[in-house]
Amino acid sequence: MTYDYIQLEKESGQPLYLQLYEQLKSAAQSGSIHPGQKLPSIRRLSEDLGLSRTTIENAYQQLCVEGYIDAQPQRGYFVLTSGGKRGVRPEEAVHPIPWQPRYNFGTDAVDSTCADLKAWRRHIREILNRPQAMVRYGEHQGELSLREALRDYSYGARGVVCSAEQVVIGAGTQPLLYILCGLMQGQVGAVAIEEPGFPQAEQVFADCGIEVLRLPGDDSGMRPEALQQSGAKVAYVTPSSREGNGSPIPLLRRQELLNWAAQTGGLLIEDDYNGELRYRARPIPAMQGMAADDRVLYLGSFSKLLLPSVRVGYMVLPQRLLPLYLARAPRYNQTASKAEQLALADYVKSGQLERQLRRLRKVYAQKSSLLMHLLQEAFGKCAQISLQETPLCVTLQFHGGPSPARLAELAETYGVRVCPGPEGKVTLGFAGIPMGDIAPGVHALQKAWNPPEFCISG
Amino acid sequence: MTYDYIQLEKESGQPLYLQLYEQLKSAAQSGSIHPGQKLPSIRRLSEDLGLSRTTIENAYQQLCVEGYIDAQPQRGYFVLTSGGKRGVRPEEAVHPIPWQPRYNFGTDAVDSTCADLKAWRRHIREILNRPQAMVRYGEHQGELSLREALRDYSYGARGVVCSAEQVVIGAGTQPLLYILCGLMQGQVGAVAIEEPGFPQAEQVFADCGIEVLRLPGDDSGMRPEALQQSGAKVAYVTPSSREGNGSPIPLLRRQELLNWAAQTGGLLIEDDYNGELRYRARPIPAMQGMAADDRVLYLGSFSKLLLPSVRVGYMVLPQRLLPLYLARAPRYNQTASKAEQLALADYVKSGQLERQLRRLRKVYAQKSSLLMHLLQEAFGKCAQISLQETPLCVTLQFHGGPSPARLAELAETYGVRVCPGPEGKVTLGFAGIPMGDIAPGVHALQKAWNPPEFCISG
DNA sequence: GGGTATTTGTCCGTATGTATG
DNA sequence: TCATACATACGGACAAATACC
């Protein structure tokens, strides 16, 4: 620590070493510096404070004899606990490791056996070896090489048609939505979202003072008539990965939504979360590429494709918003890591993202059918089991029986993590669990819920 | 490319290979796929589309004979230019390298000879070798280990008093301000900022519908009386690094601002940009630590301390805002890279950030005095030269003579980048230029501006 | 894993100012 | 006035622990 906050007065009559002693003592007593913490070395502090080493040494000596700190030769001075015992050394002060389930059907991770960590590491390393890149701020809009790579990738994988100029990079969807809200400032009254809504996006709209209208949808998604009636000029849709509904918005409905946009002059925000990850059927192309008239803003990301910890997303602006954006771009700092942007650009350009996508599709196809099969066997008689394809999970809909929260609790005692949902629903994600753990995981779940208090599974 | 966007209809009477041919042709003609680009292999595309290899081959054949694409045995099919020539291969399509000045007195980079890239690389490498960390999303508030490290660091270096719970990580100041604006939604009418303002922050407030009042300040910074009169409940101040003013807000004024907050129940947002980088005198501790009554929100960052390309910043919430934030935290995804967060945590905890800080202070002290000395010699007679200490730059104030823009142009022709400012001001940053380049850089500048059309330097 | 450079507590000689006799 | 003692402050030298490659 630099302890720059210490303020001493040379003229105060009081000896300097005593002033220092007092300040350090009160800091220790008030808990501002913690037991076990290392104090700055005598040399360092003397330099910082512009004092002689002896002065510091005297102050430290005083604290030593009074039992506040402990001198460890050639290592440093360390703060003791109030009881005078030596505090834990920093390395020993390890956090209590949060409980890790043996079988993780959560939705917050990807399977480490499938993640392409090796290639990612290689690319990051390569970028870090380019000092010219690292010592400079990045471009506001995102690195050009990545925007070009995404232009090509999004066209090939999703049919998104755009130039690199339309692509804006950001650290996930939210920062990009803030920029969008800024562009729309004052010109848009409300944004329509399909029930049950999408908190992460709604939060952004709320923060920017834009009203959110939740519209009930049908099996095919948001209804254009409802949209029309709501009077909203902007609609936020997640056509590929709908909350609580396994099927994406079908082509026909997409066309209807595009018609709504064309007729009313509205804007469609297409959040294509996991859009490329459809594996049982061919993915439905993005609406952005189907639209003839520039009324779709496309949002894409990579958390489930590459690594959840890599927060890089992008949006494709409609041409009509481009001049407005470019004028304002300098006022928005880029949020995504420059190193990760450049690494991702290479990763995409070298075709590895695409290879990874193919790999994952196969893996998820296998995992999902195995999991569906096992769950049908185990709980088919007492629950309705439905595959949520692109959200990479399966929901069990129980009628009666313990609450989802209780079921999740029971599962935890058997080392299984599942996600409790509303209305008797329990969700099991399969992105994060290795293939080989699925069968034992379901067995453990069966034990946890069996003899089921609510269901005759035999 | 995956070419998932291709949509064929089995029932349409039209042969499949012709449908495919048409789609590819129009894609090539519309420029959606670029000359030189490799088409997917026959095997791959046949798998993607669920068709026979022959179908694809026929379509490709057709495109070949019509000169749209070119078959390269054992390599693949490549798109030709409209003229029938082979397009440049992707690797050859290198970007025009943006002009790099020989002597960079810009403010957007740090000196690569001072940047601690080696240590940073080591820490990043270490993190990447921990798959468990990388395959999981991070915590919304930021990694705990980093928040703890910053709690200790900010106390030692800046006198900020807080718990790890109060620390929120983000990809720079802007994402953090959005969160703050969300917390204040509706409860705050306007934010006061000292003239000449700070566009990056104002943009966020504007996006969130919060009015910005620019208050003229005096030499010591924002005036409490003006603040009082404005009626604003929130004030945004940059006490360490004031735009166009070399000196930070002095202790007395800080106390007065704190008094304003205490008396009116207002909130001070303390953006401590480069606060730790004061090198000529001891840094003034942060207001956050001086305040007895929890009315300061502290903002810190690392771009100039570590690497500009690493966008990690943090804010320290006042206790009173904590419950509100914690309730809303799950709705804000973390924006900073998890790998960089964990690497930074280790970097800080191992004391290397502090060592780097010391190193940089020395370097900047040397650089600034050298630059000031040389500029005085060269332009002392025709410009007022003032050191902006923590912004790490020097401003030359010319009275008369060419416009700053013209001066910057002249400099560019001699390979020197400087930053034109308003009102006859030209700014020279010294963070990004190596020590040894300063003297020749100033000489080049002297040549560029000499024989000065405006100033007798002899 | 081992060799080297740096960091660090400790010890020691010195200088200055003040009070005492 | 001088000698002595003491408190305070400064910086050089040494050897062990640590960090780094």
Summed up:
The first copy, chain A, has 458 residues and is an alpha/beta fold. The first copy, chain A, contains 16 helices and 15 strands.
Structure characterization notes:
- The structure is a homodimer of 458-residue chains.
- The first copy, chain A, is of the alpha/beta class.
- Helices cover 40% and strands 14% of the residues of chain A.
- Chain A contains 16 helices and 15 strands.
- In chain A, a hairpin with a 3-residue loop joins strand 1 and strand 2.
- The first copy, chain A, is globular, with a radius of gyration of 29 Å.
- Chain A starts with 15 loop residues before the first helix and ends in a 10-residue tail after the last helix.
- About 2% of the residues of chain A have low confidence.
- Chain A binds a DNA duplex (21 and 21 nucleotides) through helix 2 and helix 3.
Attribute tags:
3 domains, Aspartate Aminotransferase, domain 2, 458 residues, globular, four-stranded antiparallel sheet, homodimer, seven-stranded mixed sheet, 14% strand, alpha/beta, DNA-binding, Aspartate Aminotransferase, domain 1, Arc Repressor Mutant, subunit A
